[in-house]
Design goal:
The protein is of the alpha/beta class and 557 residues long. The protein is 44% helix and 9% strand. The chain folds into 3 domains: 85 residues, Hemocyanin, N-terminal domain (Up-down Bundle), CATH 1.20.1370; 151 residues, Rossmann fold, CATH 3.40.50.10380; 183 residues, Rossmann fold, CATH 3.40.50.720. Bound molecules: nicotinamide-adenine-dinucleotide (NAD).
């Protein structure tokens, strides 16, 4: 779908009142039209002479922006270019991104955003979002009020401790809330003015950053314990007061905080943790699609997770709910999910297990390595969420292919360099029989006359739609049932043709439509469970689509 944006709107196009004039208008990215301001607008709004005389159409502007970006020598430079456009002209940024989502998602999101975060302090151009440190304790309400937009509906907040699979990046982690929120808009349709990126800069234990004078965060070790909890509590409370309709997405917190914070706040405020719940949903969708190829129901699968953190346990828990929905008892369903952590197999004799792993500590002899675990447990699906690269070795993939006609292999760790194996390895080592998905994208791969276009098992398929659904119906809470329904809907969006080429998800080019369908499912759960605050419209899909953001300039003439 190409979004066209006529420079000269039809006569019927209602004119809007510009809230600013002159240079102030041009320097507000949400209002700026750049060279697309028409002659009439320039005359009316004090812009004459401030722009080159030729009026560009939005299509010409998009072409110029895209050409410039493509000429950059590296992905990091393209990322910087994209963010600069976002900072100058929000509408044009979204027009370019939405019309070229397959090309630009890997730039504005994983994998390039990971590099953008690592280098954040060195490539910094302009601040975006809100930074809160321990020095602002007692002032968080006022800080939130400093944000110029008053109708915030989605906040993505991180404390930067576990950025993608890259570890503690402190305040540099801000690239992630910024990137995720741009997908809330580009994929889900949440208006950009309603989004707010937040970093709780509680310090960093990253020694390289602490020694770097250019590092822009607080040059202190992380605060922990009661002081940390009090800061988060003040932030969550302040959001309820200043932006009472906002959904809070907890993002890239380390797992010792992520599970706790989710438990503490999930029934108290409108929030969720994307690493736990969003990842679970997209993975379950992938498993549902895989089931269509293998002919085996989810409740017949044995799933071995490499990693036992937020993503793994989140996926495990949602798979258990899905297996229970297919008729298994919870106990039997849990027994079909096995986990390896950095030490060994999670099993009942282990005395060192964190609380989130204990429910899955089944009885089994200790097993130290993944290959032995695959041989012993005979999984039908192997899911990599350890953040550690190259863990799915040739031996392991071959063993999966020996015990399964169509082994399900998901290498979900991000960014690309951390993937457990590549698409090429999964297909070639399994002689083209693997059903593969990865967290970051891999190019299409030809094997034995077939072209495999593996899908991106990334939560970007889920959170924008769930977020749009929450915003559309004014949901008071976000529930696991919403992620379950989202998973089913996402799997239903993958066509026979997608599956035939090895892709378990619909193409990204359909993401706006897919997100609208997921938003509907999310809102339906909210209405069913009495969690919606907006009246239910007759046609929910039409209502959501109507509310989805379109990157079209207003007519100020
Ligand atoms: P986490 O820190 O909560 O968990 C990591 C887990 O991996 C821990 O249980 C740890 O013990 C285990 N581990 C570490 N090294 C290991 C090893 N050598 N062998 C076995 N287990 C090992 O992190 P998380 O939030 O679960 O994220 C993990 C990875 O998943 C990251 O790379 C992240 O980018 C990726 N992820 C991908 C998506 C997606 O949409 N594809 C979503 C969320 C997370």
């Amino acid at each position: 779908m190409t979004i066209s944006n006529p420079a000269k709107p039809p006569k019927s196009h209602k004119s809007a009142i510009a809230p600013k004039r002159g240079a102030d208008l041009m320097h507000d990215p949400l209002l700026n039209k750049g060279t697309a301001f028409t002659r009439d607008e320039r005359l009316k709004l004090g812009l004459l002479g401030l722009l080159p005389p030729q009026v560009s159409t939005p299509e010409e502007q998009a072409e110029r922006a895209l050409n410039n970006m493509r000429k950059r020598g590296s992905d990091l430079e393209k990322y910087i270019d994209c963010l600069s456009l976002l900072d100058r002209n929000t509408t044009l940024f979204y027009q370019v991104v939405m019309n070229n989502i397959e090309e630009l998602m890997p730039i504005i999101y994983t994998p390039t955003v990971g590099l953008g975060c690592q280098r954040y302090a060195h490539i910094f151009r302009r601040a975006r979002g809100i930074f809160i440190t321990r020095r602002e304790k007692g002032m968080i309400r006022d800080i939130l009020r400093n944000w110029t937009q008053k109708d915030v509906r989605v906040i993505v907040v991180t404390d930067g401790e576990r950025i993608l699979g890259l570890g503690d990046l402190g305040a540099n982690g801000m690239g992630i809330p910024v990137g995720k929120l741009s997908l809330y808009t580009a994929c889900g349709g949440v208006p950009p003015a309603q989004t707010l990126p937040v970093t709780l800069d509680v310090g960093t234990n990253n020694e390289t950053f602490l020694k770097d004078p250019l590092y822009l965060g607080v040059h202190e070790k992380r605060i922990t314990g009661a002081e940390y909890d009090a800061l988060v509590e003040e932030f969550v409370t302040a959001v309820q007061e200043v932006f009472p309709q906002a959904l809070v997405q907890f993002e890239d917190f380390a797992n010792h905080n992520a599970f706790r914070l989710l438990e503490k706040y999930r029934d108290a405020v409108c929030c969720f943790n994307d690493d736990i719940q969003g990842t679970a949903s997209v993975s379950l969708a992938g498993l549902y699609s895989a089931a269509k190829l293998t002919g085996k129901k989810l409740s017949e699968q044995v799933i071995l997770f490499h990693g036992a953190g937020e993503a793994a346990i989140g996926i495990g828990d949602l798979c258990v709910s899905a297996m229970v929905a297919e008729g298994l008892s919870k106990q039997d369903a849990m027994k079909r999910c096995w986990f390896m952590d950095s030490k060994a197999l999670v099993e009942s004799s282990r005395k060192d297990l964190q609380a989130h792993k204990k429910p899955y500590a089944h009885e089994h002899a200790p097993l130290g390595d993944l290959l032995t675990a695959v041989r012993e447990l005979k999984p039908t699906a192997l899911i990599g969420v350890s953040g550690k690269a190259a863990q799915f070795t040739e031996d392991i993939v071959k063993e999966m292919a020996r015990i399964n006609k169509m082994p399900v292999i998901f290498a979900l760790s991000n960014p690309t360099a951390n993937a457990e194996c590549t698409a090429e390895q999964a297909y070639s080592w399994s002689e083209g029989r693997a059903i593969f998905a990865s967290g970051s994208p891999f190019p299409a791969y030809k094997y034995d006359g077939r072209t495999f276009v593996s899908g991106q098992g990334n939560n970007a398929y889920i959170f924008p739609g769930v977020g749009m659904g929450v915003v559309a119906c004014g949901a008071k809470r976000v529930t696991d049932e919403m992620f379950f329904e989202a998973a089913k809907e996402l799997a239903a969006c993958a066509s026979k043709d997608d599956l035939a080429q090895g892709c378990l998800f619909p193409p990204l080019s359909k993401i706006v439509e897919v997100s609208a369908r997921i938003a509907v499912k999310t809102a339906e759960v909210a209405y069913k469970r009495g969690l919606a605050t907006e009246p239910r419209p007759k046609d929910l899909l039409a209502f959501v689509k109507e509310r989805q953001y379109k990157p079209v300039y207003p007519n100020y003439a």
